[in-house]
Please model this.
Amino acid sequence: MNIVAKFIKALNSDASPWQIAFAVMFALIVGLTPFWRLHNLIILCLVLGFRVNLGSFLAALTLFSGLAYLFDPAMIGVGEGLLASESLQPFWTQLYANNLARLGQFNHTLTLGSLSVSLLLAPFVLIATRFLVGQYRNRLRAWVNRLRIARLLKASGVYRWYQALAD
Amino acid sequence: MRIVRWKGLLGFGVALVLLALVVELFFDTSVKWGVESFGSRVVGAEVNVAKVDHQFSPFSIILRGLQVTDASSPERNLFEADELAARIEFLPFFSDKIIIDKLAMTGAKFGTERAAPGRLYSIDLSLKKRVERVADSGVARDIEARLALPSVDELIAAEDLQTTAAINRVEAVTVKYKVEVRQAYEQLPDEPRLKRLAEDLSVIRDADYRTPAELLSGKERLDAFKKEVQRERDKVAQAKDVLLAAQRDGRDALAQLEAAPRRDYDQLKRSLTGATSLDALTERLFGESVRRWGRYTLSALETVAPLLQHRAEQDAARQRVLGRWVSFSDDGGLPSFLIREADVDLEFSQQHFVSRWQDVTGDHKALGRATRYTLASAQVGGDLTLELNGRFSFTDAGLNAEQRWQASGVELSDISLINSDVLRSDVVAAKLASSGVLEVTAGELDGAGSVNLSPLRLSSSSTEVVGKRIAGVVDNLEQIKIQLGVTGRYNAPHISLGSNLDEQVAAIVAASVSGEAKVALAELRQKLDAKAAGPSAEVTTVLASWQGLSASADQRENILTEMMSAKLSGAVGGAIDQAVDEKKDKVKDELKKKLFGG
Model:
C-alpha cells in the first residue's frame, strides 16, 4: 500500500516524467532478473546515485518481480537458446575466460534470458512510460481530480491515511 | 536540477561497507550455523561445530571440533573430527557450485562418547530407533523363552511335526485309492462270469466240426469269443494299474510315516535339551559387533553416497525451475558439488588409519569419472595391515560400485557381545582378520567376505542352567571364522552371518542330556510312536487288502490269458483229415479203373 501510495504521489507530484520512466525501466531489469546478480548491484547504485524516482522504482519492482514468476520458464528458454547458439560459442567462451564476466553470471540460463529480454524491452518501456506519464498529467490528472469519487476519496480518512503513509 | 543524488550514493557506499563488515564479522558464525543446521537435517541428529575460521585468499574454511550425533544412540557420536579444512574455489560459487580443491580431516573417530546426548530432529529416525529398541528387547525375550525347557506335550502341540504331516498323507492316500480301487474292482469279471466264459469256450472248442463250413463257422465263433475275453482282460489290466499305483503310494506313505517319528524325535530332542536355544549362536553372539564393523566398511556406500546423490537430485530439481549453469571451459560441466581430493586421518579402536578420496560427487555423469577411495593403516610396522579400496558412481540405473578389503592383526579388547539377563558374553581379547569383495549394480548389493577371530578369548556367564552350558562352551572357543554375506539396497544393507559354531555347540549340548531330559525324551519317544501307530496299522491293513485284490486280479488275468490261447480241438483236425482221405481214396479208385479196367 505504501509503495502504491508513493507511486500515485509521484505521478501527481512535480517529479520529472523521465525520473519516473527511468525508475520503471530499471525496475523492469531488476524485477525480471534474479535479484542477487552483479548487474542489479550496478542498477541499485544508479537508482540511488541519480535522481531516479524511488517510489516509482519500488512500485514497479514489486510489479515486475511478480510478473517474473510467470515468465521465468520462457526466460530460461531464451537463455538456453542464446547459450547454445553455435555462432555465439566463441563469444561465450571468451567471456567465460574473463573472471569479471563470470562474476556477472551470464552463463546462467535464467539470468542471461531475463537480462536479454529486459534489456531489449528497456528502451520501449522507458519511452512508453515517459509518454504515459506525460499523457496522464496533461489529460487525465485534472479530469481525475474533478471526479466526484476522487473528491470523495480525498476527503475520506483513507486518503489521508495514504498521504500520511506516503509522507 | 542536479542529476546526481549524492546522499543516495553515500548511502549506497555505506551500505556496501556495512555489508562487507557484516560478512567479515559474521561469516564464521553463519558457516557454523549453516553446517550445523544442514548437517542436522541430513543426519537427523544434532551436529556441532566448536569453531570456524576462514581466509579469503586462497578461499578456505576450517571447521574445528566437528561432532555428528549417532541418531540411533544419541549418547555417542556417529563421527567426530578435530579439524576439517577445505580449500574452496572462489569463482564456481558464482555458478552456484561448490568445488573443493582439497579437503583435509584430522583426528576423525567413530563412536565416541558425547558430553551430553545429542538432540534428534527427525521424527522418522526417532521412531526407527524406538522400533529397533523393541526389536532388541524381543531378541532378549526370545533367548529367555528358548532357554526355558518346554514340556513334551507343549513341544508336540507347538512344533510342526513330520509325523502329523505323514499321518495326513497316509489318510489322503487311503481315502483317494479306496474309492478308485473299489470302482476298478467292480469292473472285474466275477466268478460266475468266468465260469460262463469257460463253458462257452468249451462248447466252441469241443464241438465236432465235420465239414469245412462247420469249421469256418466254429472259427468265427472262437474269434468273437476271444474279443469278448480281451475286453475282460482290458478291464483287469486297468484295475491292476489302479491297484499297483495304490500299493506304491500306500507303501511310500507308510515308509514316511514309519520314519517321521524318528525325525521328529531328533528335532524335538534338540528343543527338549535346550540345543535349539543355541541355533544361530554365531548371530546372537557376534551379529551386532560384526554388523557394526561391517557397517563401518560400508559407510562409504551407505552414508556418503546417498548424501551426495541427495544433493545432486536437489540441484537437478532446482535447475529445472531456476535455470541451469552452462560451462564453456575444458572442464566440461563441473558437478554442482565436488571435492577433488580429500585426506581423512581417522582413529578406530585405538588404531590410526588414513583414507584418501578423489572426485567426491553425486553427479558422475557431469564429471565423467567415478569417486575413488582407499583406506589403509597409518601404522608403520606391527601386525596390523589394512587395505580397502573402492569406487562408486551414480548412473541413470542407480548406484554402481565395487569395494575390496583385506585386513589382519586388528586388536580387539573388552567388547561386549551380548548382555541379556540370561547370558552375558564379552570379548576379553581377540585378533581380527577380514577380507571380502562387494559389488553394487543398480543399487543392489552382492558381497561376500569373512571375519576370522583368532586367537579369541571370551568371558561368558549366565544364571540359567542351559545358559551356563552355553557360556562354558563359548568360553572354550579359541578361534572362530564367520562368513559374511551382504545383500539388499546399498543404503539399507543386510549382512548375514554364518559359521560352524552352531553345529559344534549343539552337538556338545545334545550329548550332555540331563536326567530330567532323559525321562522327557523317553516320554516323547513313546508319544510320537503312539501317534503314528494307529494310522500305520490302518494303512498296513489296507495295503494287505489291496495286495489280496491284486493277487485275485492276477489270477483272473491268467485265466483270461489262457482262454485267449485256446484253439479248436482235435475234432476239427479229424474232419479235415477225413475229407482229405476220402478225396485220396476217390482219386486212387479212378486211377485203378483207368490202368487195370474194371
